[in-house]
Amino acid sequence: MSIRAVTPLREAAERLGATRLVRSLGPGGLVSGAVVLLVLLAAVWPDLLAPGDPTAVAPARAYLPPGEGGLLGTDASGRDVWTRVVHGAGQSLGVGAAATAIGLALGVVLGFGAALGPRWLDGLLSRVIEVLFALPSLVLALLLVAVLGAGVGPSVLAVGAATAPGYARILRARAQSVARSPYVGAARLEGVGAPRAFVRHVLPNTVWPLVALATLGVGQAIVWVSALSYLGLGALPPSPEWGAMLNAGRLHITTSWWLTVAPGLAITVTAAALTLLGRRLSAVAPA
Q1: How far apart, in whole angstroms, are the C-alpha atoms of residue 62 and residue 50?
Q2: CB of 155 within 8 A of CB of 234?
Q3: Using alpha carbons only, what angle is made at residue 26 by residues 18 and 44, rounded to the nearest 5 degrees?
Q4: Are 110 and 132 in contact (CB under 8 A)?
Q5: Quick check: 173 and 155 in contact, CB under 8 A?
Q6: pLDDT at residue 17 above 60?
Q7: In terms of C-beta density within 10 A (0-12 exposed, 13-18 middle, 19 or more buried), how is residue 223 classed?
């Protein structure tokens, strides 16, 4: 068969795979994906959706309600709330992704060490993972922030470290199952060394399911980092980070409700979209 004949077949197979993915995601997954893409657009190119300076102060326009003061009104300093929410997407999504990456990295080290290491290391790491997993993750994050100090960096590290035990526990069980599978045993009987078998079989079949799980983790991390900022332990005003906006508007919730509703809806919708998309991707991902 010529190369010209192979290319259309390959393109048709790729289209078929994309069609199957779309059908597997369903309407809810597609809507969630669209919301996530919109948030990514706001994070990467905020001026496209809300041109303007999110920190520009205009005291004469303070506390204007939605409509009179723009799409979502203005805050105590006359700053446009819509502009701040859009520009805050980059910070909120960035810290959530960074915390998830830290949690995944620590989880991979702990999970693979427990699953593929010697028995004494498995026992030691398993006990550590169980002790950390027994603590509520947000409480563990608060303890770590108390040790590391307040700020965006410490809050990201704290949330990442607090989520690592969950990833490590899942990865350990998955890695042990794959390492004991028949195809890995057959590869070893054929003379494939342990490092090569790990790279070719164990690693891809273990880490890939975590990709979908990480989508869930980003939404969860956004909520937790925003919670720390709301408590004054993360980003602080005048930062447009959503948790910091909640913290700034909490004292005016009865008189200027839009100051808390706008960032609260941004956090809720983003986290819900990432969670639903992550669950659909987990169902589609190969077992």
Answers
A1: 19
A2: yes
A3: 70
A4: no
A5: no
A6: no
A7: buried
CB 224 within 8 A of CB 92: no
Write down the H helix ranges in 53-151.
81-116, 119-134, 137-148
Q: How far apart are the two ends of the chain, measured CA to CA in Å?
A: 33
Can you tell me the distance from the alpha carbon of 280 to that of 98, in angstroms, rounded to the nearest whole number? 22
- 78 Rama sector, left if φ>0, alpha if ψ -120 to 50, beta otherwise: left
Phi-psi region of 66 (alpha: psi -120 to 50; beta: other; left: phi over 0): beta
φ and ψ of 74, to 5 deg = -130, 165
- Rounded Cα–Cα distance for residues 220 and 257 (Å): 25
Q: 52: burial class by Cβ within 10 Å (0-12, 13-18, 19+)?
A: middle
Nearest CA-CA partner of 222 in 52, 35, 76, 34:
35
Q: In angstroms, rounded to a whole number, what is the distance separating the alpha carbons of residues 247 and 118?
A: 48
* 118-159 confidence digits (pLDDT tens): 888 888 888 888 887 777 777 888 888 888 887 888 888 888
Please state the pTM of the whole predicted model: 0.79
The SS3 call for residue 35 is helix
- Average of per-residue pLDDT across 183-203: 71
- DSSP code at position 65: P
Q: The tokens 């054929």 sit on which residue?
A: 190
How far is 31 from 43, CA to CA, in rounded Å? Answer: 18
